[in-house]
Amino acid sequence: MDKRSQDDTANEPNEGSEGIPAPDGPANLIDTDYVIGQDNITSSKFGIDFDLHGKVFTISSLVILFFVIVTLAFQNQVAPVFNAMFSFLTGNLDWFFILAANIFVVLAVVLIFTPLSKVRLGGANATPDFSYAGWFAMLFAAGMGIGLMFYGVSEPLTHFGTSLAGDGGAPLGGAEGNEQAAAQLGMSATIFHWGLHPWGIYAIVALSLALFSYNKGLPLTMRSIFYPILGERVWGWPGHVIDILAVFATLFGLATSLGLGASQASAGLHYLFDTPNTNVTMVVLILGITLVALGSVLAGVDKGVQRLSQLNMALAFLLLLFVIFVGPTLLIATGFFENLFGYVKNLPALSNPFGREDSGFTQGWTAYYWAWWISWSPFVGMFIARVSRGRTVREFLIAVLLVPTLVSILWMTAFGGTAIDQVVSEGYTGVQDAALELQLFSMLGQLPLTAITSFVGIVLVMVFFITSSDSGSLVIDSITAGGKVDAPKPQRVFWALIEGAIAIALLLGGGLTALQTAVITTGLPFTLVLLVACYAIIKGLMSEPRGT
């Protein structure tokens, strides 16, 4: 890898950086003649400015628009196709997704304890752009907000039920007839899906992007990670393919989350206000919230995304505290440490990719989750990279791995633990019998102030919806603008609208299975891309000056 030293010129503008600041202090810039945006098409028509990477934007947008049109036009015909694809991919490739996720986590953890962790993102003298409070809020809200609302009650309860029954979908074979063991196994399996593995995936992608953009002077786009492998070819078709795959993965990963959010918000509104819980309601919700998200997109990261993220964190924290103090407080307090211990104890067995006898669990849950997180990784990784300049690699990895994992354990313990306690101790089976998207509201219905807490839950889903949409629009716009981080705002509006259109198409074309199939299908090729990126990140870190 050709490099040129950046020290005395650290504070001079990095020509062609298009919004990416030059390294502050010693860093090793990659010596390339490529200028960010040199392959872009720039125009202004009817007062609307455009600045697009011609090939990446054109191919991505045309293929996605074709997919949306076909899915909406042939709803009845595409549903069986989605079902067959989902069964084939999860039934044959669950081991591959599990193995790949293990590699990402191991690499992230190992890097913390190596001298490479002393490298500072943005140059040796860089300082953080955001406070810890703002940083953590954006990490968490962008990472998995809607998912925690949708699965916080339903997943622990589902794994508890299958473990107690000992059926084919039980994790690790279940614990038939043993309520205590089934509850612990159910919580361990849930935390496995929301703990170190998803955040290890995000951390590797985010660290790679931040390193090659802020320290190496390359565009903030997925292709830049592969410069150590492809060299100058990264600016040609090999790089175009990588960025196009990143766009597909990000859009379908986001669409899955938006679809889940719409179904839960619709169910919650029906539960509270008896509104129709139909596809029409979900489509209206997606359209309405997408329009609200456009305002946040246009306001930018500092004013829009950060403020909404902090608002959502405050609301989520209040709802979490309410459940802890009004629900089975002692059970939740002790359960946090018991579940943490159970997670650590069962982690080797749960993450084993080979010779598993619980194929119903690995294929129906884990393979889908890992593909979902990998599809989300360009979006979450690029967003985390944008807000993490100035952190050391060690500080970055510890924060990205541990803080969200611990919060996820507390969240699942509070919401899932309360629901399981309602079934076991109170004999309330309504929460267990409710549809997945209704189980959160059914659990809250057994606690005081039901109307208020359920309404807060709906608002949380909607605001998580908005933060995911606007963050995703910023990221996809950067990829399709050749790595520019300050491209014209109409492009962000276009991608926010496309996200909503894909979510609508998938919901109408097959519901939850269609959403899951889209994630698995786009996550598969991108997993291969990320495995190759693991080599590039090590090579990139080894060339950087390290602090003391």
What's this, in brief?
With about 550 residues, this protein is mostly helical.
Explain what this protein looks like in three dimensions.
Helices cover 72% and strands 4% of the residues. It is mainly α and 548 residues long. The chain starts with a strand and ends in a 6-residue tail after the last helix. The relative contact order is 0.20. Its main location: membrane.
What share of residues is helical? over 70%
> Span from first to last CA?
25 Å
Average pLDDT rating: 88
Shape: globular
Strand order of the largest sheet: 1-2
Total helical segments: 16
Q: Percent of residues in beta strands?
A: under 5%
**Structural class per helix/strand content?**
mainly alpha
Q: Care to count the β-strands? A: 4
In terms of topology, how is this protein built?
Blueprint: E1 3-6, E2 27-30, E3 40-45, E4 48-53, H1 54-73, H2 75-112, H3 132-165, H4 179-194, H5 196-215, H6 227-230, H7 237-273, H8 279-326, H9 329-350, H10 359-386, H11 393-424, H12 430-433, H13 439-444, H14 450-480, H15 489-508, H16 511-542
Antiparallel strand pairs: 1-2, 3-4
Helix pairs in contact: 1-7, 1-15, 2-5, 2-10, 2-11, 2-16, 3-4, 3-7, 3-8, 3-10, 3-11, 3-14, 4-9, 4-11, 5-10, 5-11, 5-16, 7-8, 7-10, 7-14, 7-15, 7-16, 8-14, 8-15, 9-11, 10-14, 10-16, 14-15, 15-16
Question: How would you describe this structure in keywords?
Answer:
single chain, 548 residues, mainly alpha, two-stranded antiparallel ribbon, 16 helices, 72% helix, disordered N terminus
